[in-house]
Each structure stands twice: as structure tokens, then as C-alpha cells.
Amino acid sequence: MDIFRRPEDIPADYGRTVITIGNFDGVHRGHAVVLDELRAAADSRGLRSVVVTFDPHPRIVHQSDSPVELICSLDQRLGRIARSGVDAVLVQPYTLAFADQSAEEFVLDYLVGKLRASAVVVGHDVRFGRGNSGDLEALTALGRRHGFDVVVIDEVGEGTRYSSSAIRRLLEEGDVRSAADQLGYNHTLTGTVVHGEKRGREMGFPTANLDLEAEGLVPADGVYAGWMHFPSRGLRLPTAISVGTNPTFHGSVRTVEGHALDVRFADLDVYGDTMEVSFVERIRGQVAFRGMEPLIAQMHEDVDRARSVLVS
Fold it and tell me: What is the pLDDT of residue 158?
């Protein structure tokens, strides 16, 4: 998949394109339908399929006092879009100047002029141009006037439409299973394994700690059943995952750490490795225990529950 960082990077001989435009945060099941339709529309015309996505997220630009916490990083987003089989992604730098184009300027200068669109794949609720002044009716009329088709996709979802905003809320509540139903995959954080306090090892539950700059939205504090994946080793391990500040030890830093089930820690030297942590189900919330013994007893129970979740 080609990745362009600005429209000017698209080669002059790239030809006309079929495009879709969106934030694609999480690249959820609704997005997957859009990407499938994009590929089909491009294939039927013998043209390249191009996804236009934004960085930073428009809300970060327009509402800097209440920025959105994204489901996935740009790299994670691009990786998932690439797996859809589209030909290219344009990562459009999102600025106030870009947002200030009128609806017609956006179509003429951007879609037709810079992207050479032969067709545009959109949902019924498409909005574009300054103040979101353009809608589906305006886009269709401009398409007839300037020689591009508008392919419209119906809303997709089970009971309600798939939504990045709804998925963020589910993750913030710790409902990773419902989030996975909308995403189409288990929510995943990606980062580097770093040294922690080693308290887990002392209690018989050694963990791999994810660095604080890990990519992806960290779900609500608590204990989860999930998986640790080490891509460079081709290793995927069933895991009990802890998210939180370790209140039993009066911690203040929020961490993500995983205890691999039924694996001797001495056989797992992964410090410095890239690790992907995927969440399957929340087992319980975060609790401050009155001492080590009740904590260790609960950890044994957590591991048993995680194992049963992952085996079922």
C-alpha cells in the first residue's frame, strides 16, 4: 500500500482515483464495509483505491481544550487500512486553513484537482467544507457538474451504527468485549516491554510491562483476560492483564502489565521487544487490598478466570 503524506506526493502518472474520506479511528466494522466498497468501486473502474484520512484528528484542531483520546495511533490505523487491500492512503495534515475551504473549493481544488477523483465513496451523512456546509445532495450535484460519481453506502451496524465515539466510551468503561463486537477484533495496545517494580515476580506472578508511551487507548483500570503478542518472535501468549496504579502499594503511575499464563518467566526474556497487548474480557475492576495475602489470593483467582475465558 502506498502512503502519501500530502497530495503533492501523489505521482503525476498515478491516474484518476476512487476515494473515500474519513478519520477511520479504530478502523471498525463499519469502516471495513466502506473500504470493501471502495475497493470494489475502484476495481470495477480499473482505477486505484485511495483512502484519505486526517492527522491530527479534526477535533484536536477545533476543540483543543477537550481533545479526543484516539482508539488507535496513526501507525496502527495505517496498518489496519493496509490489511483491507486498498491501493493507497493519503494522510492529510488537518489544519484550520484546510477546514476553511468552502464546500465547492474542497470539491474542485481537492477532490477533482489534487486527487483526480473519478468516484467518491461516502455515507448518507457525509459533510464537508467550511462549517460542514456541504452534504450528500451538494456532493452529488457537484459530481454531475465536474465528472465524478458518488457511491453511497448505507449505515452499518447491529441495532445501532458502528461508531468510533461509541467504541471509545465502551473502552473507557472497560467493556472490551462489546468494543470488540464493534471493532471486529480485540482492542490492542502496542509498545515496548520495559522494566517495572518487579512486585509481581516477588509474589509469583511475573509480568511484562508496557511502556507508558504505548499506542492505543488504554481501557478502564482493572484486570482483563487477553493476549500478549511478540511479533519479532512469532509468539502469542494467553495473559492476565492488569491496568491501573497498583493502589495496594499506593502507586500513582498508571501502568499496563501482563502475566503470561503457564509460562516460566525465566524462559521469557522480552525486555526491549515490541509487544502487542490485546484485551478479550474484563474480569474485575481495580481494588486496593489490605496486604499481600489477600492480593495474592485474588491474583490466583484472576489467573484461573482469565484461563477459562481464553479457553472457552
Answer: 66
For residue 68, the one-letter residue type is V
Q: Which of 40, 57, 52, 76 is nearest to 2 (CA)?
A: 52
> Do the beta carbons of residue 52 and residue 6 sit within 8 Å?
no
Q: Which domains does the chain have, with CATH numbers?
A: 2-161 (3.40.50.620), 176-311 (2.40.30.30)
CA–CA separation, 267 vs 252, rounded Å? 30
Burial class (CB in 10 A: 0-12, 13-18, 19+), 283: buried
Look over the chain and give the mean of its residue pLDDT values, rounded to a whole number.
91
Q: 92-120 pLDDT, tens per residue?
A: 999 999 999 999 999 999 999 999 999 99
How far apart are the C-alpha atoms of 89 and 35, rounded to whole Å? 11
Contacts for 233 with CB less than 8 Å, ≥ 6 apart: 270, 273
